[in-house]
Amino acid sequence: MTQPKAGDIVLKGYFLSADEGDATKRMALGFGSGGAELKVKVEGYQMTKQGLRFLGSGEGTSKTGITPGAA
Prior knowledge:
Blueprint: E1 9-19, H1 23-28, E2 37-48, E3 51-63
Antiparallel strand pairs: 1-2, 2-3
């Protein structure tokens, strides 16, 4: 693994939750029902001569698209 140098930006990410959803609900009901969902957190740092300096963080959610079901 490469070590960051002064001035480099370091991103650290974490999976908060992963829900694979329910295929039966997706097929029968559709429109996002039973869809998969992934939640993540990302933290940004800048490498300095003294070590990592925290810049900020954020969370995001990704869901499956809304599509009609078979029923």
